[in-house]
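Troubleshooting: if your tokenizer reports a length mismatch, compare your output against this known-good record of 76 residues.
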Amino acid sequence: MQIHIGNLIRDELRRSGHTNQWLADRIGITPRTLQKLFNKPSVDTQQLLTISRALGADLFSYYSMSLKESPYNSRE
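Known-good structure output:
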């Protein structure tokens, strides 16, 4: 499963009902930088933690789910 965390952050922001400006202010970046972040397939873990806290959502869970679905996770 390929994860595009930028898309998932944008989706979570939409679900929250907050604006791009609101999130940008909370995480200390400009709305323009936030727009660029939405296009990134990956982000720094510290930044993802900051965003998760701001949105009140565990965005790391997408990676955990991916690990559970991985064919390399077999113990055979």
